[in-house]
């Protein structure tokens, strides 16, 4: 008897639907359907969940030559937990969970959630997973138009490491970057490197503002560049005049960046 036949038999003997079993072990109904059809097989964590739930050994469950029954003794439907971690045969692990919405857009699920041990990929318009790919992507590693995660890549990326058009994080790389370490056309951070930069340490090819600033226009406490302006000079000079000088040389600079100069007067 093959695994898919054993699983079907065990489920029927318990009088469970595929959805009931999926809920008991923390997976989707589609996953159970694929297991019973032989289209896929569960990973080790899910095999352990199944064997514990039905009170059978893994050998009985996966070896084709061994038949399987529920037996006469009563089997508990509750899997023991300790601090939110399942304990099965003295093996501790966190359960996995997957949800795929029935609604799809261009064949892509509207919502796909896939979290748990190991590399679990979620692909959907809204994707949440260890590795997530979607329009709105949330995960340890996330790829999408709008991405949030430990590592995020997208038009808008928020993460420990963010890479995108607009990126914010511990380290950020983007056209507009905010972070402890910021790299971009417009970079604002503890250490900022790019074209127009503001930060504790700012290194820019054009305009740099910071405690330590290096750029064509360098404005700050310690400055080096072609045009250098210290805070003491800035406080006695015309802010509007400096802004106009920069704007004349770099007419495409975003105006909001020039407004940061007023903060150096404080």
From TrEMBL:
GO terms of molecular function: DNA binding
Positions of the HTH cro/C1-type domain: 7-61
Membrane-traversing stretches: 125-146, 152-178
Pfam families, alphabetized: HTH_3
Keywords: DNA-binding, Membrane, Transmembrane, Transmembrane helix
InterPro entries to which the protein is assigned, alphabetical: Cro/C1-type_HTH (IPR001387), Lambda_DNA-bd_dom_sf (IPR010982)
Superkingdom, taxonomy of origin: Bacteria
Protein name (database record): Helix-turn-helix transcriptional regulator
Organism: Variimorphobacter saccharofermentans
């Amino acid at each position: 008897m093959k695994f898919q036949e054993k699983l079907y038999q065990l489920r029927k003997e318990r009088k469970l639907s595929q959805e009931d079993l999926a809920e008991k072990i923390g997976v989707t109904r589609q996953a159970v359907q694929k297991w019973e059809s032989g289209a896929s097989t569960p990973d080790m964590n899910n095999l352990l969940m199944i064997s514990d739930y039905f009170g059978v050994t893994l050998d009985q469950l996966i070896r084709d030559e061994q038949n399987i029954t529920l037996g006469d003794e009563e089997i508990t439907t509750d899997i023991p937990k300790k601090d939110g971690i399942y304990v099965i045969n003295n093996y501790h692990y966190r359960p996995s969970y997957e949800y795929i919405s029935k609604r799809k857009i261009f064949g892509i699920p509207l919502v796909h959630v896939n979290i748990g041990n190991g590399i679990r990929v979620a692909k959907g318009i809204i994707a949440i997973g260890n590795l997530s790919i979607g329009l709105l992507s949330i995960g340890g590693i996330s790829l999408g138009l709008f991405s949030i995660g430990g590592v995020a890549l997208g038009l808008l990326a928020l993460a420990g490491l963010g890479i995108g058009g607009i990126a914010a994080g511990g380290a950020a790389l983007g056209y507009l970057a905010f972070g402890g370490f910021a790299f971009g056309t417009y970079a604002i951070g503890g250490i900022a490197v790019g074209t127009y930069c503001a930060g504790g340490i700012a290194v820019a090819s054009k305009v740099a503002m910071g405690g330590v600033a290096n750029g064509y226009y360098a404005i700050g406490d310690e400055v080096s560049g072609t045009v250098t302006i210290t805070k003491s000079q800035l406080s006695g000079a015309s802010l509007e005049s400096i802004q106009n000088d920069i704007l004349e040389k770099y007419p495409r600079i975003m105006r909001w960046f020039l407004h940061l100069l007023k903060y150096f007067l404080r």
